[in-house]
Amino acid sequence: MPDSYSLLILPGDGIGPEVMAEVVKVIDWFQANRGMSFDVTHDLVGGSAYDAHGVPLTDETMAKAQAADAVLLGAVGGPKYDVLDFAVKPERGLLRLRKEMDLFANLRPAQCFDALADFSSLKREVVAGLDILIVRELTSGVYFGQPRGIHDDDNNPENEGGRVGINTQRYTSGEIRRVARSAFEMARRRRGKVCSMEKANVMESGILWREEVQWVHDNEYPDVELTHMYADNGLMQLVRQPRQFDVILTDNLFGDLLSDAAAMLTGSLGMLPSASLGAPMANGRPKALYEPVHGSAPDIAGQGKANPIACILSFAMALRYSFDQGDAAAELERAVERVLAEGVRTADLMGPEGGSPVSTAGMGDRIVAALAAGA
Ligand code: NAD
């Protein structure tokens, strides 16, 4: 283990600073009790950066993000900033981070804690104990491919309406190989299985995808179990029998659909972490940005109602995937599980039967207490 890991914390706007304050308690606990050392820097992103500097991300903050072992972000945005020019909107800060760090692999775990299985849209027995990870290619594919656009279809008199809309699904072998490596690396830290999804039955880009993923497997990760599935069947399997999967690897378009569907398996938005990874740095670890899936929740900001678990689980992902501290990550996840099993709930996790919710800080304190009690 290195002397210390560098971690850039960007709380952002709305509930971002509230949930991040609870992550800081967790980081402090690991430093005090597990011999870890984090070189933590705090900075601004989004609306808070705009208020201070007139831009949603300064060049100095960008440089710090490029140099950090990991970046942890809360959330950006809010109604106050809706009137700003597009170029300085809070979301531009986040997009700049993703683009300049070249974060091509988006990781979305779908983990269903037993105590929350009734929040899922599926039956308890199908989702209880679920723990899968979707690795989605994020910087290429049909959302970026050229040519694209809406054109007049002048030479086609039979086209009622006279226009044509075009998008292009385009992948290079290099783009497929690098995201495949990310998925195989994740699988090695988990249960050692990757299922790659495409539409090789009807798309040439799908055939290339399948061949390149297989090539990376055979040449570099033969120890990982690799299967292939057509993406339509994959989505069906995801809602039929989701626990059959460990890591799902897929492209930008199919990943968009699969990861949103997987999110519904687990219930609340306040529970969903994510990570975006780029190429390995000189130290061998990938560039990485960890963030909850939710936004800045202006409707509850400043009221102590936000659920900090998505942000705390994002830090658990950083422990596992950036800092090689899988045991500590599992310890933190067990602490979350234990607190939920004890019936501790923030307002978003209250069922129709009601009860008295804990505050954001109350949830953070209970998770730290569970760590201390040896979760
Ligand atoms: P949102 O995720 O902020 O909120 C949707 C709903 O979920 C709200 O009712 C909110 O109260 C609730 N919610 C979200 N996170 C919660 C948590 N941790 N605990 C309890 N309840 C939670 O999405 P929105 O309302 O569509 O967007 C609000 C702002 O956030 C907008 O400015 C949007 O652009 C921005 N946004 C930012 C990100 C990001 O930073 N990655 C993502 C999505 C939206």
UniProtKB/TrEMBL annotation:
- Name the source's superkingdom: Bacteria
Q: Where is the Isopropylmalate dehydrogenase-like domain?
A: 6-367
Question: Which InterPro entries does UniProt cross-reference here?
Answer: IsoCit/isopropylmalate_DH_CS (IPR019818), IsoPropMal-DH-like_dom (IPR024084), Isopropylmalate_DH (IPR004429)
Enumerate the Gene3D superfamilies for this protein. Isopropylmalate Dehydrogenase
Q: How does it assemble?
A: Homodimer.
Q: PANTHER family, from UniProt?
A: 3-ISOPROPYLMALATE DEHYDROGENASE
Put simply, this protein is called 3-isopropylmalate dehydrogenase
Origin organism is: Paracoccus siganidrum
